[in-house]
Design brief:
The protein is of the alpha/beta class. It has ten helices and ten strands. Helix content is 36%, strand content 22%. A hairpin with a 2-residue loop joins strand 4 and strand 5.
Length: 279
């Protein structure tokens, strides 16, 4: 069935185990209640967005999901398994990858080397083989490099800068490199914290296209959790939208439902229909 955005995204079955689920999550910093009983379900294959005004708790929520923060109350499940106790690297091994609101890249390293860092969890060779760079390690290196160049660099259209130091690149290209490093993990869940922030219109359109590609192309089929302020992109891309305000959920629903919700309009979108036209 078509959604309110006019596309034909497949609706998950009601009895399907969510890829990610938060149950009554609370996160406090002293007397500040950053998250107050937040619950969320993300089904496999979705692009599920989180919106809300500055200070609503969006990044705190992402930090709880990928293990940077441990909530004082509530539970987090990934593919039906409780993961509250797992550190970020353990969650990465389960298939979570993330980009950050501020670009986190190694400026002195090349584009290719930055992306290669995202493959470290896939290396299986031992210390001895790695020390002499022979046998299994050498074969693995070739395989991983071929994957990066044929899949990621081609997808993100960065062949022409693959050997350049990332710190010398424009901000928009650095954002692509960070996305490439996250994709190098071959995640099932890709967590994107404001991937469009600081980009011009052409770069926004490119990044939105990359997100659609990794979500829909058979080679990837990655579930995406997106925090973003660009309402035009959010409404176009998302199967569902979660609205957060001062640590509380206002609504979690399809784009049309969110667009028409009076509390959302009052708290975040304003009295005008801000996404009827792109500004």
């Amino acid at each position: 069935m078509p959604t309110e955005t006019g596309d034909f995204r497949e609706t998950p079955k009601e009895n399907e185990v969510p890829l990610l689920e938060l149950k009554d999550v609370h996160m406090r910093f002293g007397k500040v209640n950053a998250l107050q009983g937040v619950s969320l379900k993300i089904q496999k294959g979705e692009i599920h967005s989180i919106i809300g005004p500055n200070g609503a708790g969006k990044t705190v929520m992402l930090n709880c999901i990928n293990g940077l923060y441990r909530p004082q109350e509530g539970e987090i499940f990934y593919k039906g398994e409780r993961i509250n106790h797992l550190r970020p690297h353990r969650r990465a091994k389960l298939g979570m990858a993330r980009t950050f609101q501020k670009v986190e890249v190694f400026g002195g390293l090349s584009v290719l080397d930055n992306i290669r860092l995202g493959r470290h969890l896939h290396f299986k060779s031992g210390i001895l083989s790695g020390a002499v760079y022979a046998g299994k390690t050498s074969r693995e290196e070739v395989e991983h490099r071929e994957f990066i160049e044929s899949q990621i660099i081609d997808l993100l259209e960065i062949e022409h800068i693959r050997h350049q130091p990332v710190g010398m690149l424009p901000y928009g290209l650095q954002k692509r490199v960070e996305l490439g490093r996250a994709l190098a993990l071959e995640p099932e869940l890709l967590i994107l914290d404001e991937p469009l922030a600081g980009l011009n219109l052409e770069e926004v359109e490119d990044m939105a296209r990359f997100i659609i590609d990794v979500n829909e192309e058979p080679r990837w089929k990655v579930t995406c959790l997106l925090v973003e302020h660009d309402m035009g992109v959010v409404m176009d891309l998302s199967a569902r939208i979660f609205v957060l305000n001062f640590g509380n959920m206002i609504v979690d629903g399809a784009p049309g439902e969110v667009q028409a919700h009076p509390e959302v309009i009052k708290a975040y979108l304003g009295e005008e229909d801000l996404y009827a036209t792109r500004r």
